[in-house]
Amino acid sequence: MKLYLFLRKLFLLMGFVIFALILFSSLSVFFVSYGKSYSDIENVPYKKMALVLGTSKYVSGDDYNLFYHFRIEAANELIQNNKVDYLLLSGAKDGLYNEPEKMKEDLLKRGVSENKILLDYKGFRTWDSVIRVKEVFGENDFIIVSQQFHIQRALFIASLNDIEARAYIAKNPPIYQAFRTYVRELFARVKLIFDVIFQVRSEFEEKKVVEI
User: Fold this and answer.
1) In what helix (H) or strand (E) does residue 23 lie, and over which residues does it extend?
2) Rounded CA gap, 23 and 100, in Å?
3) Do 210 and 137 meet the contact criterion of CB atoms below 8 Å apart?
4) pTM of the full predicted structure?
5) Which tens digits make up the pLDDT trace of 36-92?
6) What is the DSSP letter of 42?
7) Which residues, in sequence order, are bridge partners of residue 88?
8) 3-state helix, strand, coil in the chain (%, to 5)
């Protein structure tokens, strides 16, 4: 009986700690990023570059990823409305899996000029993608393109690294298609806080090597 009570208290304590971490990280990310994003294309300020955060085009085999689709649409809107001069497509590349190239293909189909597209194949996580815009592509003031929940974390990372980023919000898929992604985002924010506390850096950070 004593063991049962001890385990019960332990699990309750663990549950409270996890809840507190999720709440603290989510509120921190929200307040730091507050007021830095736009949902109306008319309100987006002009910047030289937009960072389009990558994701896979398909999920669960051949199911089309609406997160991907809406990010491509948002990126295209920025170019068509002359809000940016360049789109930096950042994502992972591993063998045949190539997020930046897929995004480039779909933007070209929408009429975006190839000379307005830049690719970063080392955007393996959001931290890498945001930091490399400054360190590799030499831009410290740019627009971030993704869904709002993702944008908040990206803007938090930018603020930590003295980057003057703003964001254009891509549409969200229906909640029933995106629930798992939202849950993962909660834990991604907790991990981000631990990365900050323990000063975890990226192996892909490097000095500026690209001239635009």
Assistant:
1) helix 2-33
2) 33
3) yes
4) 0.91
5) 999 999 999 999 999 999 999 988 767 889 999 999 999 999 999 999 999 999 999
6) G
7) 51, 118
8) 50, 20, 30
For the chain, the structural domain boundaries read 2-197
CA dihedral 206, 155, 90, 184 (to 10 degrees): 110
Q: What is the CA radius of gyration of the chain?
A: 19
- SS3 call for 86: strand
Q: Residue 204 and residue 92: Cα distance in Å, rounded?
A: 12
Kindly give, in sequence order, each residue whose CB lies less than 8 Å from that of residue 2, ignoring residues fewer than 6 positions away: none
The two three-digit tokens of residue 195, written as one number = 């990365």
Q: What is the pLDDT of residues 154-164, one digit of tens each?
A: 999 999 999 99
Task: For domain 2-197, give the CATH number.
Answer: 3.40.50.620
Q: Give the Cα separation of 75 and 84 in Å (integer).
A: 9
* Planar angle of CA 195, 200, 206, nearest 5 degrees: 130
What single string gives the DSSP state of each residue in 104-142?
HHHHHHTT--GGGEEEETB-SSHHHHHHHHHHTT--SS-
Q: Alpha-carbon distance 22 to 167, whole Å?
A: 23
